Amino acid sequence: MGTKLNFRSSLNRRSFLQGSAAVGAGALGLEFLASCGTTTSSADSTVTATIDTLPPTANKGAIYVFNQGVKQFEQTHPGEKIVGKNDPYDPTTYFARLAAGQSEDVKESWFTEPPLLISKHAVADITSLAKGWQYWSSYNPGIASIATDAATGKIYGVPVSGYALGIYYNRKMFKAAGLDPDKPPTTWEEFRGYAKQLKSSSVAGYAETSTSNQGGWHFTNWMYTAGGDMQSADGTKATFNSDKGVSVLQMLKDMRFTDQSLTKQQLFTQADTLQLLATNKVAMVVMAPDQLNTLKSQYQANLDDFGIGPMPQNGGNAALTGGNIFIFNPKSSKEKIKAGFDYVIYNNFDLSVMESNLATQSASGQVVGGPANVLFTGEFQQKVNELTTKYANAPLQNYQSFNKSTATLRPEPRKETQKMYAALDPVVQAVLTNASADPQKLLDQAAQQFQQVLDQSAS
Question: CB 58: neighbour CB atoms within 10 A?
Answer without folding.
Answer: 9
